[in-house]
Design goal:
heterodimer; A: Butyryl-Coa Dehydrogenase, subunit A, domain 1; Butyryl-CoA Dehydrogenase, subunit A, domain 2; Butyryl-CoA Dehydrogenase, subunit A, domain 3; globular; B: alpha+beta; four-stranded antiparallel sheet; disordered N terminus; binds flavin-adenine dinucleotide
Chain lengths: ~375, ~350
């Protein structure tokens, strides 16, 4: 317990120092849009990335709860963690579990140093919710594989060191899928930006045309890609980024609110719900570290948390309009609200839509 | 009388089609084409240089433009400013006028040497790129006035709403008014604000119809798991929900157009604003990641819905107004206030 307390103090003092030096301004959805390699490097240098990884790779060999403390503190502060987020969250556990010695030696120290920026290459034009429909394929060639096809909505591919591509090496549907670490930038890989409705550039189309990937960059056994992707998705869905994406916005809107504000009850509800989400999160994190990726509490948490996040955008609009305000919200708070509103449709879509999650939940309940 | 038939005369359908064709064919020339075709002067008597027609005609044109997510200023200039001027017995059929009716302001006017001089700040003024003049509500003694001033006489600060539509802050420092008109005694700031609210409500209802059609057609063509997503019950329910909201919004607007007045304007803006929130979220959910791409047409509509829901008075503000107006009656009767709004009984 005291370990956790010490760790929380450590990450908080790091964040406070970064803020004091104006190294970052808080953002909503900072794990997706807050790309700041220098911040990631400083965090890595303090040993605060990949806490669960073995010490030989620069980790601390700690448990899930410790990792959760660091993650939630960073997200609550709106810190720019996007550069290393996917690498730490799902790439590193996958490499640790399925990677070769050489892959572990190469990538894991980079992850803990905050110097591995990884994009996720799952979705395609015709394979969104129906991920098993992917058509990107890899053909065996001398010394490696040739990948042909296109991934869609790949967040951060334009800045990443590599994209982990799920491609078909044979079979149908869930069988015969394999994961590849495709290094970027890469003359054989074409990345096209897809501007968001805010006009910003975060996700991409990534096209492969017989793009060569050496055997050494195949991740895990041939044909095991579906299982690996499902394990990664469990990590992806089970974190505080599913209920804390808009917290910096809410915090920034508070100054100037009247104490008798009619929205006090709404704020009370936010506090009550986030408190409950944290408890669920600690529980699923423990289940995950014990290897139970099929827990229905993971989709339950994601669907609850992301619906909550969307609700906070409406609450923020109410807080802005609150007539009992002593003074108007700051420009920074309004900018965070705008940012959150543009991002909000994605909350309940990315990482598996809420309808699909609820399908998984109801199947799980009737098992 | 069926209130939902307000839009469906042959002439009005033809009008809608003309607007659609124009907005499809023209990009930055749209405003000019609306002006030259007389569309911009609908609602102004032909004897005064306008194109004739009424609110329902204008609403049809505004709805069509909104469904195309276009930034022409018909809603603000023709529907709001020209109406306000008409209340004072005045008309303008050649220049565009931006209504500063978005938020309460601190504007003041003093009379000196036979002219009125205006000072203060008007915020969130729409249509300032199309307009040459701004129309500013000013309280003088017991009555409300409208001051007409060149926009160029203000210090100007432009901001974008979520859809990239320009909303301007105008700061006047003793600027001379071109005209100072007195509003009739039964009208004040809230009526002007509600007229802007109704304009936004009409736009919302137009955008919602477009969102509904876009979302239904997407769900019927997008296949996952070997069939159109529209065949998933969860998706089918979302489509139904978007259709519910689009209908509700349309009905509230139809009521306000066919039975004009503050009460029905308030109802139209509150109902459409809630519908906008709900349907925008649901339509995005049906579209998955596709809806978040700027290249796909949904975002241009939903960002407008988000902005318009907040502009011209948000849902809660008008609900609050309706509720208070209801409760301040002597022995308020729910059913009676629905059948005979308190407002119509007082006038
Ligand atoms: C901001 C953002 C970032 C993203 N980043 C990445 C990334 O980095 N890498 C990556 O690979 N992908 C990424 N994605 C893509 C994401 O994984 C997909 O959007 C998601 O899996 C849904 O797929 P889709 O968008 O094709 O929607 P679709 O699958 O087409 O779904 C459309 C609608 O149909 C519903 N639906 C579909 N099937 C069913 C069903 N069986 N039952 C009920 N309802 C159903 C859905 O719930 C949804 O409402 C990102 C998406 C977003 C929004």
């Amino acid at each position: 317990m005291s370990d956790i307390t010490d760790l929380r103090a450590e990450i908080r003092s790091f964040v406070a120092a970064e803020l004091a030096q104006q190294n970052f301004a808080p953002h909503c959805d900072s794990w997706l849009i807050g790309f700041d390699p220098d911040f990631s490097a400083r965090l890595g240098a303090r040993g605060l990335i990949g806490l669960m990884l073995p010490k030989e790779f620069g980790g601390r060999g700690l448990g899930v709860n410790e990792r959760l403390v660091v993650s939630e503190e960073l997200l609550a502060a709106g810190a720019p963690v996007a550069a290393h987020w996917f690498a730490e969250r799902q790439f590193a556990p996958s490499v640790l579990r399925h990677g070769t010695d050489a892959q572990q030696q190469e990538w894991l120290p980079r992850v803990t140093a905050g110097n591995a920026w990884i994009s996720i290459g799952l979705s395609e034009a015709d394979a969104g919710s129906d991920l098993a429909a992917i058509r990107t394929r890899a053909d065996k060639v001398d010394g490696g594989w040739a990948i042909t096809g296109a991934k869609l909505w790949s967040s951060g591919a334009h800045t990443a060191h590599a994209i982990v591509v799920l491609a078909r090496t044979g079979g149908e549907r869930h069988d015969g899928l394999t994961q590849f670490i495709v290094r970027l930038p890469n003359p054989a890989v074409h990345i096209r930006p897809i501007p968001l409705i805010s006009g910003e550039h975060h996700f991409n189309e990534v096209a492969f045309d017989s793009s060569f990937v050496p055997d050494g960059d195949v991740l895990g056994p041939i044909g095991n890609g579906w299982n690996q992707a499902m394990q990664e998705l469990a990590f992806e869905r089970a974190g505080p980024e599913r209920y804390l994406s808009t917290l910096p916005m809410l915090q920034a809107l508070l100054p100037g609110l009247g104490h008798s504000s009619p929205t006090a009850a709404d704020l009370g509800r936010c506090i009550a719900e986030i408190t409950s989400f944290r408890t669920i999160n600690q529980r699923v994190a423990e289940q995950l570290s014990a290897g139970a990726t099929a827990s229905i509490e993971i989709p339950l948490l994601k669907s609850l948390g992301t619906s909550f996040e969307q609700g906070t955008v409406q609450l923020a609009l109410d807080l802005v309009a609150d007539a009992s305000r002593a003074f108007p919200p700051s420009d920074q708070a309004l900018a965070l609200l705008r940012e959150a509103q543009f991002q909000s449709p994605g909350f309940t879509i990315r990482g598996g839509t809420n309808e699909v999650l609820r399908g998984i939940i109801s199947k799980g309940l009737s098992r | 009388m069926s209130q939902l038939d307000w839009s469906l005369t042959e002439e009005r359908l033809a009008l809608a089609k003309t607007v659609l064709d124009m907005s499809a064919a023209l990009d930055d020339q749209l405003q000019l084409a609306l002006d030259e075709s007389g569309m911009s002067w609908i609602g102004i008597e032909e004897s005064e240089g306008g194109s004739g027609g009424d609110d329902a005609d204008l609403a049809i044109a505004i709805r069509a433009l909104a469904g195309q997510a276009r930034n022409a200023s018909l809603a603000e200039t023709a529907f709001v400013s020209a109406w306000a001027l008409r209340q004072c017995g005045h008309s303008e059929a050649s220049r565009h006028i931006a209504p500063a009716f978005s938020t309460a302001n601190d504007l003041q006017a003093v009379e000196r040497e036979g002219r009125w001089w205006v000072s203060g700040t008007a915020r969130q003024v729409p249509a300032t790129s199309a307009a040459q003049l701004a129309l500013l509500p000013i309280a003088l003694g017991d009555s409300w006035h409208l001051a007409l001033l060149p926009i160029s006489s203000a210090e100007i600060e432009e901001e974008d709403n979520l859809a990239g539509e320009i909303r301007t802050t105008l700061r006047f420092n003793s600027a001379p008014a071109e005209l100072m008109l007195e509003l009739p005694a039964h009208l004040n700031w809230i009526d002007l604000h509600a007229r802007l609210g109704l304009a936004r409500a009409i736009q919302i209802s137009g955008a919602l119809l477009a969102v509904r059609d876009l979302t239904v057609s997407y769900a019927r063509t997008r296949e996952q798991f070997g069939k159109p997503i529209a065949e998933q019950q969860a998706v089918a329910h979302m489509l139904a929900s978007v259709a519910e909201q689009a209908l509700l919004a349309e009905a509230a607007v139809a009521t306000a157009i066919s039975t004009p007045g503050l009460w029905n304007n308030a109802i139209a803006k509150s109902v459409t604003s809630r519908a906008a929130r709900s349907a925008a979220a649901t339509a995005h959910q049906v579209h998955g990641a596709m809806g978040m791409s700027e290249e796909y047409p949904l975002g241009a509509l939903t960002t407008r819905l988000w902005s318009w829901a907040e502009e011209g008075g948000r849902a809660e503000a008008w609900e609050n107004w309706i509720g208070r107006r209801f409760m301040e009656q002597d022995q308020p009767q729910l059913w009676e206030s629905i059948v005979n709004p308190p407002e119509s009984r007082h006038q």
